[in-house]
Amino acid sequence: MIRERWIQLVGAAFTAVFLVTFDNVPLVDLLQRPTYYRDLSTTLIATFLLISYVSFITSQLDKRIGWAGGWLWRLAGQGVLGVVSSSVLAYGIAYAQYRFIDSEHVFGTDSFLQVELPVIVLCLLFINCLYLGGSYFRWKEHSQPIPLQEQPTPAETSYVTTIIGIHGNRKINVPTDNIAFICVENGLTWLFTFDNARYHLDEPLHLLIERLNPAQFFRVNRQYIVQLSACFSYQPADFSKLTLRLIPPFNVELTISQKTAPGFRRWIER
Fold first, then answer.
1. Each residue of 193-214: pLDDT tens digit?
2. End-to-end CA, the chain
3. pTM of the predicted model, to two decimals?
4. Confidence of residue 18 (pLDDT cuts 50, 70, 90)
5. What range does the domain containing 207 cover?
6. Residue 193 falls within a domain, yes or no?
7. N or C terminus of the chain: which is more exposed, having fewer CB within 10 Å?
8. Residues 6+ apart with CB under 8 A from 10
9. Do 137 and 229 belong to one domain?
10. Residue 42: Cβ within 10 Å count
């Protein structure tokens, strides 16, 4: 979520510079005007809010309509709620800006309606296309069936029942049934048992998950592998992500990405 916010902020900054600098006045003269920086700041905030709004609308449409319900309905939903409603919202923000901040600008003039507003709508259309394309490719990726040759059979696969944990100078055989979760902290891999004992491991997570029974363990993100019995509750979060809370005494709250969330739902709800 933090990464997406940064991307939205950078996109808003580029869009704000483009919109505010889109004028017949030379850039050197604009940079000498205090009103230029005022307009740049207000436009940056407004653009960030509009991009966040389009992101929110896209995530809600993915949940309620989705591409599986028909691409025409999905496109229509994005067009009405993503493009039209964000354009109306942009019009309202511009009105508030000219009414309370830039009172010298005559709102509703030909300059705004014929020049500025069409450029704003075009930018919003482009932003919606980016989010719509990302939504489609995520759906396409998740809807691809696993090739039959990649589906292991019980006869071909055997999973470990114990893992060697390191505690001081001792190496201890830890049964997998007693493992609550495995995590990476400061570059080191740690195993936590249900009785809150901690052991160091020599293997990285991507090798450990291959040896653990997938019916019992799931890698929820880059830092954590959790056991099914250690999952206390989960709930939807922003941008189609999930928030997972582990059982006491851990009370750890984990974020599951939008890409991993469908697989986690299938795993925990099977």
1. 999 899 999 999 999 999 999 9
2. 27
3. 0.48
4. low
5. 162-269
6. yes
7. C
8. none
9. no
10. 18
